[in-house]
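Subject: Sanity check before I submit

Could someone independently write out the structure tokens for this chain? I want to compare against mine line by line before I put it in a report. The sequence has 253 residues.
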Amino acid sequence: MSTTRHLVNRRRRLATVAAERATTATIAPPRGPQDPAPSRDESARTPDGPDTTTDDEVTDSAADDEAAAEERGEEPKRERTPRLRVRLPLVLGVLTVLLGAYAAWAFASAGDLRDDPARQNTALTDIGRTSEVKGQISEAVGAVFSYDYASPAKSDQAVKSHLTGKAVQQHRDMLAQVRAQGQKQKLVLTTTVTDSGVERLNGDRARLLIYADQSNTRTGKAEETTYAAAMFAVDAVRHGGTWRISAIDTFAR
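---
Independent answer below. Compare away.
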């Protein structure tokens, strides 16, 4: 292995240096009493001085470190920086592509949310408009679904004021029997809205759920009154600041 070879070479060099130091110590003549003491500089240059590391030992130590790193399966440090420089542009390119794809997906998702009808429903957020449509449509329902045989023109005027579109024909069909029997039985139909809820509100269009109580009174020879509850939905549109019923849904199949 590379590590073992370097360790053996290093031990050999250390043994050679130790032998040379021993030989130098043996050959040096003993210092007599008249000889001056060695100076501080000379002492620093002796084998026992503080700096005894040779250039070969430093080189061998670095080589040993590199060999040990190779034996552990690691890359030498001097090779990591060039490879990192090569890989960095590739990583940045991949990140750029991923961020671009995410931005495109986020933009498309935001568009879908804006186009979703549920997101456009402001029935719970636009309190003023919700209250306005509830009040006007509740009044309209009470007017068009009430009938007095003594003043049928009032019912006709309510239809013109509060209905539009296909709601006009729907209303005519629903009250056809009441109008036919009105004069004969002296009918008085009264409708009162007890509750209402705005199911959908989108600009000038809305859909409401209506709860109402109805009383039907025959004022002929024997006065008779019947009561009933009704639940239905209406579509409404806003024209000139006024909400009008555009369609009636009785949930009949």
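---
OP: Matches mine. For the report I'm noting this point. The longest helix spans residues 77-115.
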